[in-house]
Amino acid sequence: MSDVACKNPPNYWTLHGLWPDRAESCNNSWHFNEAEIMDLLPEMNSFWPDVLHPNHTQLWKHEWQKHGTCAATLCILDSQHKYFGNTLDLYKKTDLSSVLAKCGITPSSKYYKVQDIKNAVEKIYGVVPKVQCFPSQEQGVQVLTQIEICFTKELQPRNCTDAGEVHQGVPNRPWDSIKEELCVCNETLQTYYPPIGQQWV
To answer: What CA–CA distance (Å, rounded) separates 158 from 151?
Structure first.
């Protein structure tokens, strides 16, 4: 994004969050407390970074208040340490960068089919993901932006079935100024998987 300077973006897929279905902001009085996850911070900074605010906690605070407080209804996720720790464990079991590369899908100037991206994930994990994109100003092209892996309440992988969901932006974040919303990729459009640092419009 031309108006946002990502600071030292990693060259691998990172975490956005772990979101329960159909529930948000379940306990506004249960505030994020970094002290509860101090032992997780090295991995959090590597695998769940806020590339817009490096070494800060805005993203984690948002994810906990909006999603973690709802996930906490499950005993496996009923504390900040369990929520962030178990989410990191799921991330480490789901290495999207390697999965896509094994199927010949790598950041480059070429285009891919959405179905090929889905097939790559299904081939390794046996479940269908939700693949999300930003539209591009280039006719007939979209930009691969996010891949969601869905889980049961027991944190076992399952097919993502809510294919039409539109992801709503994080309030007060720079990317919310973008007019186009992140949404499920259009199966008929070519999909660009840009290299790190590659500017796209």
So the answer is: 5
Reported as a single tens digit per residue, the pLDDT across 4-47 is 666 677 889 999 999 998 889 999 999 999 999 999 999 999 99
What global pTM score does this model have?
A: 0.85
146 pairs with which residues across the strands? 132
Phi and psi, residue 144, nearest 5°: -60, 125
Task: Give the Cβ contact number of residue 176 at 10 Å.
Answer: 11
Q: Tokens in use for 55? A: 């070494």
Q: Which residues are catalytic?
A: 16, 63, 67
CA angle 122, 92, 67 (to 5 degrees): 90
Secondary structure of the chain: what % helix, strand, coil (to 5)? 35, 15, 55
Picking from 18, 106, 113, 110, the residue whose alpha carbon sits closest to that of residue 70 is 18
**Cα(140)–Cα(44) distance, integer angstroms:** 36
DSSP state of 63: H
- Is there a contact between 132 and 182 (Cβ–Cβ < 8 Å)? yes
